[in-house]
Write a structure and sequence with these properties.
294 residues, mainly alpha, MetI-like fold
């Protein structure tokens, strides 16, 4: 185009103004939720509803079967549970089991963290962890009970021994898997800051691998709780008292079937409390707060 020649102007486009359709209740972001929607949005409310459905099904089947010696109704189990709490020291039995469980669980967690830290720091530690887990993880903890009785006698120490075994290997496996899944970016960032040894594990690996560690803690808790109840069914906690497993065993021998189910319900309630209160609180303050889990 020659100099001085005016450039052609772009064509003018017609402008249209369209009115938006009225927004309904579905598209209204600020619409207040109904009482039913607020209730169903709570996980605790949904779980309580499911528990009530299970209790109703239990009651209906027990009433239909009409054989309390085999399967008592849920109402009879609740009566036995309340009577056992008031007159048969059921809460004390539960506390006895929880104390023993806490000792074995804490020792197992500490040993698992030490072994896993050694495994991620050295090749020898990694070989040691893989060898030990391949040997002992498939071994049921309750199978070590006869050996524990020979070594430590009839008492609390034998229970702690089998509990440590049930906690140590699943937690070590999950923790090691979480450590090995940590991205190289985080690892290099830790090394650039001069971290090594224990500080490297505590400040870099543990926060990044905490979802796997938390899963291992849950699995180890479940294994330990089941092992404890099974071991108490055999010989109790000590020669002078017994926990929940011994309570179940005693009532089974006396054919007090509602009390047997009451002991089982107490075991379930403690498990629900650990999952719904303790571990959920840990999740809310760690992996959920950090955006690592939905």
């Amino acid at each position: 185009m020659a100099e001085g020649t005016a450039k052609p102007l772009p064509p003018k486009r017609s402008e249209f103004e369209r009115a938006l359709p009225p927004l309904g209740a579905v598209g209204d972001v600020a619409r207040p939720l109904s009482a039913f929607e607020r209730l169903t949005s709570l996980a605790s409310a949904r779980r309580i509803f499911l528990l009530l459905l299970l209790a109703a099904a239990w009651q209906a089947y027990g009433a239909w079967l009409a054989n309390p010696l085999v399967f008592p109704p849920f109402s009879a189990v609740l009566d036995a549970l309340w009577d056992s709490i008031l007159n048969r020291n059921l809460l004390w039995r539960a506390w006895t089991s929880i104390v023993v469980l806490a000792k074995g669980y804490v020792i197992g967690v500490v040993l698992a963290l030490v072994i896993t830290a050694l495994a991620v720091s050295t090749r020898v530690g990694s070989d040691l962890l893989s060898t030990l887990t391949a040997m002992f993880n498939p071994l049921p903890a309750i199978a070590l009970l006869p050996i524990a009785l020979l070594w430590f006698g009839l008492g609390e120490t034998s229970l702690v021994f089998v509990l440590v075994h049930s906690v140590l290997w699943p937690l070590a496996l999950n923790t090691h898997a979480g450590f090995t899944a940590v991205s190289e970016t985080l690892r290099m960032a830790g090394r650039n800051y001069g971290l090594s040894g224990v500080r490297y594990v505590v400040l870099i690996l543990i926060p990044a691998a905490f979802p796997s560690i938390l899963a291992g803690l849950k699995i180890a808790w479940a294994f330990a709780w089941r092992t404890l109840i099974a071991a108490e069914l055999v010989f109790g906690v000590s020669s002078r008292s017994g926990g929940l497993g011994w309570f179940i065993f005693e009532n089974r021998n006396e054919l007090n079937i509602p009390e047997v189910f009451a002991g089982l319900v107490m075991v379930i309630l403690i498990g629900l409390a650990m999952e719904g209160v303790v571990f959920r609180a840990i999740e809310a303050r760690t992996v959920r707060l950090w955006g690592m889990q939905r």
